[in-house]
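pasting input
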Amino acid sequence: MSRPGRDDAPDRLYTLTGGRSRSAPDTPFDLVTLVVAECDPAVGMQSEHAAILRLCERPTAVVEIAAVLKLPVSITRILLSDLLAAGRVSARHPQKAALPDPDILEQVLVGLRNL
Amino acid sequence: MDSVTSDARTSQGADARTPLGAQADNGLKIVVVGGFGVGKTTLVRSVSEIRPLNTEETMTQAGAAVDDISEVRGKSATTVAFDFGRITLDARNVLYLFGAPGQERFWFLWDRLFSGTLGAVVLVDTRRIDDSWYAIDRLEHHGTPFIVACNDFGGSAHTPAQIREALDLDPKVPLLDCDARSRESSKRVLITLVEHLKTLYAAESALTTPELAL
């Protein structure tokens, strides 16, 4: 799909995602959703997909994947949505509530004090 | 300099990655917001377990799913870069610190960053207090809890009371001095924010009819 030797021109990004510029508006991928690979990279896989699977052998945040792959977050989300739909990654989404769980805040405080 | 990508020292070293523990399952966010050169990346770097990374978000009208989208009608796609760092808090919780540019034209990035964030640190250069007004205004508008940290560039002629007045700060919003280069000092800033959150939410959950700013 992506031709080698291309730089980071926008057309490269469109090629990566088959022309899509954004994932579904209800994309579940937060910047800090932790992604975990559920399979090994396979021959013939799109190279970015393979790179994500290697990166996510351990839980890795969406924003870190984007930074390491040097891709915009929006493009990274699309690639992740594809992998998620194919069952190749799982996603650990941040806990979302109107108010943060007091227990979580306490855990954050303990963690920071222990730094 | 205009660009938020200006901190060229941030690096992308994939090889230098420190992986998270296998049990990590809850990402948390704190945003550090402030004007150019106020020390956002310095603060992130001093407490982060990874060298600050840089990435970018391409924002389009349709991507900006926010309550006041009317303000950007007519704008096409814009790319904004931001720095972030990471702190592993325990086996499950991982805190991400985002350095966000405070200028008005980046507000749409904040919407994305602020979504689900625990709270924000407004980093202030007391020699350029004006740079902080807009950030504080937006945070109040969003109902995002925040504290104000004055980065010590030496020779601040202002007392905390003067800064509080200049920023027209709610008396309940904590304000402290810090040295963004110091790990201990930056830790203190983050702890102050989380302690503030605890106080805030303890008070809110005590209300029978909570009025949440949306």
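fyi The two ends of chain B are 34 Å apart (CA to CA).
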